[in-house]
Amino acid sequence: MNRLSSLFFFFLLYSVTTSTAQVRRSLGPPVNHPEFNEYAPSISANNKMLIFETDRAGEGKWELYYTTKNEKNKWNQPKPITNINKIGKPDDLIGGPSISYDGKTLFFFSSFEGGQGDMDIYYSTWDGNDWSEPKSVGNNINTKSYEGFPSVSADGKSLYFIRDNNTNKRAKTFCYAIWVSKKQEDDTWGVPEKLPAPINIDCEKAPRIMSDNRTLIFSSIRKEGVGGFDLYQTFQEDDGTWSSPINLEYINTEEDDQFASVSAAGDLMYYHTAGDIYTVTIPDKFRKYKLVTVDGKVIDAITKQPIATKLISKSSNPKERTINTVVDKSGTFSIIYRVGSKYDVSTSPLADYLPYRGKMDMSTAKETDNIEKNIELVPKKLVFQFQLLDKDTKAILKEPKVKVMDAETKQLLEVKVEKDIASVSVEIGKLYKFAANALGYSFFSRSFKPDTVDAFRERLKKVPLAVLKKDVVVQLQDITFETGKAELKPESGEELERLVTLLEGNQSIKVEISAHTDDVGNDDANLKLSEKRAKAVVDYLSTKGIKADRMIAKGYGETQPLVPNDSDENRAKNRRVQFKIN
């Protein structure tokens, strides 16, 4: 019987099967080809890439092909995965593909020369443009026996596969047992273990672990089956045991039904039967959970460049396992969440970025949703730029002189000046002191503490400087006294030293040093206090060599407020010391 006749017979058989069967659909062209076989489909988590095994290269050669969906949600013409197919001899079999849920690693098996046995398992990685040349998964998995049809879990920590069932081989039927290997701390695959009964009982094949990392679908020949190989489903409980496999009656026929691959959402199954790839909707009763996939990138909040890290998703439901997602240098991730759950998402510690704390709320999500979300990490250090301007004309001042000091360590930071802009790298959350001056102008100083919001703000600061001319008033920063007293606190020294430098560099300048108070307390007492504070500043400058005839001390009390004395914040602004050029 030729293949077309076989297909007609199968469709006739299918039309009279029991009503428990779901409506299945052939993928049709261009995926299924009427002259060739399509085998072992593997669907990516986002449901947009399908990799399968096929003999369409001709001459009995089995290779791997892939197809992607276009803008109209239709499958494009399949293409060979050349970097894998070109390896080995012309008669080497390459098959059983299993793409990881993040779409970055492709597992498969082949008879490449130099392997451990008849068939070995290999993997290839996606570099953003193409698949790499294959590498062996290692000798803990590959042996002199037949190893094939790998399936990697969504978290990348478990690799299921089949190995020769040496204890019982049915006549004329290739029988295997299902094994699993766990990823080790050094990123190698550990010594595998054979899955227990009731999974392995006699003749099993083609395991597929679902996106919840717990549901396993596999093919098996069993007494209760309806054909040759039928599809069964089992679930791993919290204690690690496996439930009794359930016959997937909605899909099984008298044909060999095998090689199931389920979308990450868990609603659609791709599988092989009668030489082609079909899909079928999975009934709710066969689904332990409903799932949804979130795709995105981890990027630098400023440069938008990708970042390699690890994402940790912890569910508000204590019975759910924590999801650990490794994000490589491409920054891309696909995370499968349970519909109805809420997750706290964080990143592993990174040397150059602040810790990320965010949420993924799936409480109202639907499994059919196509959720895309980027995670932006804020750098620990930000570059601030300063441009000095004439306070009156707004003209840009050339050759700016800028100093930035760590307020805690008193260390000066490196400031780079290019043209008329000074740049400095500062750390978020730290307190810094900034000072700037230019020839013929007064100085300007402020304290500042970069915050996370600064990552999303303009960080080119325009700094106005006053020309050194008669009647120009400059407010001094960080000149502090004990409450109700006129003794200068030690921290006042930094700003006063800047004034000393200014006066030393401009010998012709004479200044009035004035002190001001808020309106708290007696008016006369405030006036006298301000006079004493102004004189304390003059006395300090005198000790630094500034001649007394160049300075006048003047106290104004509360008579010249900058702003109304109607709040603590405003009163603090009114308590000040400033100088005026006479």
From TrEMBL:
Q: Does the keyword Signal apply?
A: yes
Q: Which domain of life is it from?
A: Bacteria
Which residue numbers delimit the OmpA-like domain? 468-582
The record's principal subcellular location, in a coarse class, is membrane
Signal peptide position in this chain? Answer: 1-21
Q: Which InterPro entries match?
A: 6-blade_b-propeller_TolB-like (IPR011042), Bact_OuterMem_StrucFunc (IPR050330), OMP_bac (IPR006664), OmpA-like (IPR006665), OmpA-like_sf (IPR036737), WD40 (IPR011659)
Q: Which PROSITE patterns match?
A: OMPA_2 (PS51123)
Pfam families given in the database record: OmpA (PF00691), PD40 (PF07676)
Keyword list (alphabetical) reads: Cell outer membrane, Membrane, Signal
Location(s), subcellular: Cell outer membrane
Where are the bilayer-spanning segments? Answer: none
What this protein is called in its record is OmpA family protein
Species source reads Arcicella rigui
